[in-house]
Amino acid sequence: MRPGSLRQAQWHAHVNAVNAPPALRHWLTGGGSLTAKLTAHSQAFRVQCLHQETVRCLSDEAASIGLHRAGRVWEREVLLRCDNRPTVFGHTVVPMQATATDWPLFSALGERSLGTTLFGDRMVRRGALEFARLRASHPLVQRAQAALALEGARFDAKSLFFARRCLYQRHHGLLLVTEVFLPAVFELSVIPRTVATDTLINKA
User: Fold this and answer.
1) Cβ contacts of residue 14 below 8 Å, gap of 6+?
2) How far, in Å, CA of 204 to CA of 202, rounded?
3) Of the ranges 86-90, 130-134, 196-200, which one carries the lowest mean pLDDT score?
4) Whole-number Cα distances in Å, 22 to 6, 19, 26, 29, 70
5) Radius of gyration of the chain measured on its C-alpha atoms
6) Cα 202–chain centre separation
7) Buried b (16+ CB within 10 A) or exposed e, 152-170
8) Residues 6 or more apart from 197 whose CB is under 8 A from it?
9) pLDDT per residue over 35-48, tens digit each?
10) Whether 147 contacts 89, CB under 8 Å
11) Measured between alpha carbons, how far is 204 from 192 in angstroms, rounded to an integer?
12) Chain segment 5-55, per-residue pLDDT in tens
C-alpha cells in the first residue's frame, strides 16, 4: 500500500496563482481533450498504462471525491507519450462506491485514452480546472520519476512541476483526473496536418 501523501499540494482555482511559464500556460488552461492536443503535437501519440488497481488516495484528493479522509480508491496511472517521449504523467482516482453504470469503460481501458472516453460521452459533466506546483518530493512526481527510471530520466530535486486536475461526474459517480506536465512538453510543436496525414497513410 502506498502512503497517503509525502507532501500535500496546494491547489488553486486560477492558473495565475501557480506562476507557470508562458510556454506552459496554454497546456494548463486549454479546453477540450488533452489527448487531442498532444496528438496534434506529435506524429505518434500513445498511452502507456503503468497500472490500474485499488490503493489509498492522496490526502489532498480525498475531499474532492467526497471522502472525509484518505481512503481506498480505484487508481489508474499512465504516461502520455508523443513520439515516444513522455510528456504528461496522468493520475486518475475513482471512489470505490462508483459502479460500472457510473463509469462503464473505466475498468477495461487498457492503453486507450481516458480523455477520449470522457469527452466523447455526453453524460459526463466536467468541473472547473485546478492548478498546482509540485515539488520533486510530491508522490506523483516521484511516481513519474520511478516510471521513467529505466529510461535514464532524472528529475532535479529542486525542480518544480506544474499540474492541473479536474473532477468529472457521470450519474452519481465521481472521477478525478490529475495531469503532471513533464519537461518534454516544452519541446512540442504543432505537427502540420499534411505531415500527420502522410504519417497515417504510410502506416496504413
Assistant:
1) 131
2) 6
3) 196-200
4) 29, 9, 8, 11, 34
5) 17
6) 30
7) eeeeeeeebbbbbbbbbeb
8) none
9) 999 999 999 999 99
10) yes
11) 19
12) 346 789 999 999 999 999 999 999 987 889 999 999 999 999 999 999 999
Which long-range contacts (C-beta less than 8 Å, at least 24 apart) are formed by 123-127?
123/170, 123/171, 124/168, 124/169, 124/170, 125/168, 125/169, 125/170, 126/166, 126/168, 127/166, 127/167, 127/168, 127/169
CA dist., res. 167 & res. 111, Å (int): 21
Give 53: exposed, middle or buried? Use CB within 10 Å, 0-12, 13-18, 19+.
exposed
Residues 6+ apart with CB under 8 A from 140: 58, 89, 91, 134, 163, 178, 180
- Cell numbers linked to 1: 500500500
Quote the cell numbers at residue 93: 482516482
Contact (Cβ atoms closer than 8 angstroms) between residue 137 and residue 114: no
Closest CA to 50 of 78, 82, 88: 78
